[in-house]
Design a protein that fits this description.
Blueprint (H helix, E strand, L loop, with lengths): L15 H14 L5 E2 L11 H12 L12 H15 L8 E4 L3 H11 L5 E6 L4 H8 L3 E6 L1 E3 L2 E3 L2 H7 L4 E7 L11 H14 L2 E5 L24 E6 L12 E4 L2 H12 L7 H13 L1 H23 L14 E2 L10 H12 L1 E2 L1 E2 L11 E4 L4 H15 L8
Parallel strand pairs: 1-12, 3-4, 3-7, 7-8, 8-9
Antiparallel strand pairs: 2-10, 5-6, 9-10, 11-14, 13-14
Helix pairs in contact: 2-9, 3-9, 4-5, 4-8, 10-12
């Protein structure tokens, strides 16, 4: 079979979260009680109004094909919501609705990245970025996301030094996975100026745009000269705890939207109309559900960060957005790969090796606090006990 495979598959990676989940499930089948902090999935139910809207739509016959780019009525709802959220005027024709947010990442790269084009991407960062750049024949150029003050961010001067005549695209993610960092207004303004100066396309992953704790994240698309060169990626999985619904969208110039829509036609035809209608219900009538969820995340954040910082060898910034802690564990004397493996096998706590997010994440691990407060306390106790050579009960 190997001789039938295309060469491009060799550069296509995966998400380590699902690999760790599979290992954790295997341990659970052996009777181990695993505390799951590896998966970036809200532990809340989808809003009941969303479920009801989907059921009504199905009963009303919204189970057939629909326009590839999305139902016009839902595109209008998304354009209105996104415009108010980001202080930008969007038209329905600038919205492409897809099954989950990932297709906008892949379709944009497929549509815009030629072999040999350089794409700057955040590292550590969502591993799919580098994987897709390579798949499209592009050259991945990492920009380090580093500890700056009390935040994780990028150094704009370092970014400037990475731009060459071959640079075509810059990928941004704010709030950021895995660090929880948020790009400041000053940083975004400087980045926007660089993009205009060097005529770069920006792919801005904003799927955590509603999950923040103090500072409201801004979209780079809202800066002068940026809307026409920015593709904004957003979705419903994180904001409304709708991971299994597979619903996302992109905001982009209408000319590009037409090409992205052709890719939709050639891949999955369309996004189920009843799912789109459920998404419109979420945007219009379920914002209070998101606010409640974020308030709960804020409580968990305090407990987890305080607890991690009390463990010898750990140091962790308080994340400004998303629902991940990204502690520096270099002082434990273990590599992030060793520690993440040992915590699962010997303490029953499933976390992610920061190195799975890129070379600049190797001294860190990622813990999701999209789990109960009881689980967070239990995980902290297990981690502390393991590092202090105490017996850890995993049953």
């Amino acid at each position: 079979m190997k001789r039938f495979l295309a060469d491009r598959l060799s550069g296509l990676g995966t998400e380590s979260a699902f690999e760790v989940l599979a290992k954790a499930r295997k341990l659970e089948s052996q009777g181990v009680k695993v505390i799951h902090m590896e998966i970036g999935e809200p532990d809340f139910s989808s809003p009941s109004r969303v479920v009801g809207a989907a059921a009504r739509a199905m009963h009303q016959g919204q189970t057939k094909y629909c326009p590839a780019g999305g139902l016009a009525s839902v595109q209008e709802v998304i354009a209105d919501y996104s415009g108010k959220l980001r202080n930008i005027n969007y038209d329905a024709g600038e919205v492409v609705i897809v099954p989950g947010a990932k297709p906008i990442l892949s379709f944009t790269m497929m549509a815009c990245v030629n072999p040999g084009d350089e794409v700057i991407y955040p590292n550590p960062g969502f591993p799919i970025y580098e994987s897709l750049i390579r798949f499209c024949g592009g050259i991945p150029v990492p920009i380090q996301i580093e500890e700056i003050g009390d935040n994780f961010s990028l150094d704009v001067n370092k970014l400037r030094s990475l731009i060459t005549s071959k640079t075509k695209m810059l990928i941004l993610n704010s709030p950021h996975n895995p660090t929880g960092g948020i790009l400041t207004d000053k940083e975004l303004e400087e980045i926007a100026n660089l993009c205009v100066e060097h005529d770069l396309l920006v792919l801005s992953d904003e799927v955590y745009s509603k999950i923040y704790y103090e500072e409201v994240p801004k979209s780079i698309a809202s800066y002068p000269g940026m809307k026409e060169r920015t593709v904004v990626v957003d979705g419903f999985s994180k904001t409304f705890s709708m991971t299994g619904w597979r619903l996302g969208y992109g905001l982009m110039p209408q000319e590009l939207a037409q090409h992205i829509t052709r890719l939709v036609i050639n891949s999955n035809s369309c996004t189920p109309p009843f799912v789109q209608i459920a998404g419109a219900e979420a945007l219009q009538n379920c914002q209070d559900e998101t606010e409640k969820m974020v308030k709960e995340f804020a409580k968990r954040r305090e407990i987890l960060i305080n607890g991690l910082n009390s463990i010898p060898g750990f140091y962790c910034h308080k994340p400004k957005g998303a629902f991940y802690a990204f502690p520096n564990i270099s002082s434990t004397g273990r590599t992030s790969s060793e520690l993440s493996h040992e915590l699962l096998e010997k303490a029953g706590v499933a976390v992610l090796d920061g190195g799975s997010f890129g070379i600049y994440g190797r001294n860190y691990i990622r813990l999701s606090y999209a789990t109960s407060i009881d689980n967070i306390y239990a995980a902290l106790n297990r981690i502390d006990s393991f590092l202090n050579n105490k017996k850890v009960s995993m049953m």
